[in-house]
Design a protein that fits this description.
The protein has 444 residues and is α+β, with helices and mostly antiparallel strands. The chain has 12 helices and 22 strands. A hairpin with a 5-residue loop joins strand 6 (130-137) and strand 7. The structure holds manganese (II) ion (MN) (2 copies).
Length: 444
């Protein structure tokens, strides 16, 4: 034994300083592309459109469902009966959805009623610039897209000034910001026409002029408020990215890029970008939907292979972010077993809550294969659990792959401020995640 300590003792180490031969420059270039993707995709629809655009001309099979979920496939040398290599990530992120009858006027303001989507800390979304994005299907069936430019007016949810916040400050957090009060302010100028609710009418007139929509068209709309602004470098050293939607577009982008760059894969490479993860992966665009099975079944049928055989021989990385150890909130984590920012992507054997409830809990064999893949490709990676035992928890799409008899394990970048309008990820972790997904697609 040359150095017994090095051989016998092992714990995660920072990824910095381990990149050689211009790789840091590659990581920085990768981060620029990722920021562009984040700016182009602030909703699952926008991510879908951007993914399909990016996939064009690359000789891939591509499938989209309801403009909100995507499957991209690069055929491998081996038949589907020998399985595939899958990365599954989600492209929906927590946000503030618009209600069916949203627009009203109160005390001289035109306001919009909302219903939040996914798990948010409501106060994060108040007193900050928001934009209205999504799709309205008009009475005649025409779909109109709302995608404001960067220089357009922002909208906002007002919060109470501290000067009058004494009563609010006495409340517990879960009661201080009722979801029903997340009303967005949309305008203040009254219409010059006669009638009541002149400000509401003026705002509706604006929407009609611009998008051809009437108040009835909110009935067939999918509109949401997302943070305004673009992805920014964070830290004085610019080592991190502050942006809306790292969860889970960091994994979605890495999966796509790895698929694009996979050269002559041995196994058919599959990239799934699913919707609805933040509300339980339900719906026809969620990972529980038959969309994925239908696509795979058609491909298997063309080869005379049973879908179940293909699934049983497949291997999947469920790409999803985890919490990064936060020195400001160290007491929610087991410091020895929580992912660290800048230490590469975190592999999660188990997620869920309580006694691993709601988790697919990968086997030792699956972890063994994962180790060999990642170490073999020189990926800097770590393992972790989301916070202390019994502190809380979270889920991913992994269990829905496992239910299909597909071997699966979770892996994703550690994130600070998860589910906040500005989440933080380290550039080096995003890069190492791309390397991890590339290693899966390069499996021989
Ligand atoms: Mn997620
Ligand atoms: Mn999430």
């Amino acid at each position: 034994m040359g150095n017994a300590r090095e051989i016998l003792i092992g714990k995660p180490a920072p990824a910095y300083g381990r990149l050689r031969g211009g790789e840091w420059e590659k990581a920085l270039a990768y981060a620029e592309g990722y920021k562009q993707f984040l700016n182009a995709g602030k909703t699952e629809r926008e991510c879908t459109a951007e993914a399909l655009r990016m996939a064009e001309g690359r000789g891939l099979l591509s499938y989209a469902r309801h403009n909100k979920a995507v499957i991209l496939i690069k055929r491998g040398r081996r038949p589907l009966s020998e399985g595939t290599r899958i990365v599954a990530a989600h492209i929906d992120s927590p946000r503030i959805d618009v209600k069916p009858y949203p627009l009203y006027e109160q005390d001289g303001f035109a306001m919009l009623k909302t219903h939040y989507y996914g798990g948010i800390k409501k106060y994060h979304w108040m007193a900050m610039p928001l934009e209205l994005r999504g799709v309205v299907v008009l009475r005649d069936g025409t779909a109109v897209t709302l995608a404001p430019d960067a220089d357009e007016p922002v909208l906002f949810i007002s919060d109470l000034l501290p000067h009058l916040g004494a009563d609010q400050a006495k409340k517990v957090l879960s009661e201080a910001f009722p979801g029903e009060n997340l009303n967005v302010t949309a305008g203040t100028i009254p219409s010059e026409e006669d009638g009541d609710e002149k400000v509401k009418f003026a705002v509706m007139s604006l929407l009609h002029k611009r998008y051809g929509m009437t108040e009835h068209d909110f009935q067939s709309a999918e509109l949401c408020f997302v943070p305004a602004g673009t992805a920014r470098d964070a830290g004085l050293d610019g080592s991190m990215i502050g942006a809306y939607g790292h969860d889970d577009r960091s994994c979605a982008y890495a999966a796509m890029k790895a698929l694009f760059d996979a050269e002559d894969p041995e196994y058919t490479a599959v990239c799934v970008l699913a919707d609805k993860e933040e509300i339980g992966s339900e719906g026809i665009t969620g990972m529980q939907s038959a969309f994925f099975d239908t696509v795979m079944e058609d491909l298997c049928a063309a080869e005379g292979t049973a879908l179940r055989t293909c699934y049983a021989n497949s291997f999947c990385f469920s790409g999803d972010v985890t919490n990064a150890f936060d020195p400001n909130f160290a007491d929610v984590s087991d410091a020895r077993n929580n992912a660290r920012l800048g230490h590469g992507p975190c592999v999660m054997k188990a997620t869920g809550r309580g006694g691993k409830s709601g988790s697919s809990d990968a086997s030792a064999e699956t972890m063994g294969k994962t180790r060999r893949l990642l170490d073999g490709a020189g990926v800097c990676w770590q393992m972790g659990e989301l916070g202390k035992v019994d502190q809380g928890g979270g889920g991913t799409v992994a269990l829905f792959l496992a239910r299909r008899n597909i071997e699966v394990v979770d892996i994703g970048v550690p994130v600070l401020n998860m589910h906040a309008p500005m989440e933080i990820a380290a550039k080096i972790d995003c890069w190492e995640l791309y390397k991890a997904f590339s290693a899966l697609y390069a499996d021989r």
